Amino acid sequence: YMPRNPLVTVEPAPSLVITRNLFAELGEQTYMPRELLEGTVPAALLDKYMFWHNKDQSLSGYQRPELADGTKAPSMIKIELEVAGGADDEGFDTALSDGRVKKYTLLAPVTPDNPPQVDKSAPVLTLMNAAKGAE
């Protein structure tokens, strides 16, 4: 995969928006392809998690099933967005924002029958407090 040049105009073409509504407490989520997040979300997270956009404007990252490791507790990433500048009044979703990245340990892997259940006894890691090499 080669990232596209953001300075090159892309002609309109057919596209696909993938949404899901697995759990009432999360509401409808929209899939965020890796290429839309590259350069914004660290590549190490994009390699291990699939991201979904939530109604509250946050992103939830769920571990990629093919990378599940039975020796480690399952986890999820939550990126909370906070608009730092004025609202985007042109409709391009380009308002300046800050993102707070947090990693939660889960009690069990997330499946269509099992919503995320955070292990409240485990510490929440953020990019600001994670030790070097922390997973």
Descriptive overview:
- This protein is mainly β.
- The protein has one domain.
- The protein is 7% helix and 27% strand.
- It has two helices and seven strands.
- The protein has a seven-stranded antiparallel beta sheet with strand order 1-2-3-4-5-6-7.
- A hairpin with a 5-residue loop joins strand 3 and strand 4.
- It is globular, with a radius of gyration of 16 Å.
- The two termini are 25 Å apart.
- The mean pLDDT is 84.
List keywords for this structure.
135 residues, mainly beta, seven-stranded antiparallel beta sheet, 2 helices, 7 strands, 7% helix
Put the structure in a nutshell.
This protein is mostly beta strands. It contains two helices and seven strands, in the order E-E-H-H-E-E-E-E-E.
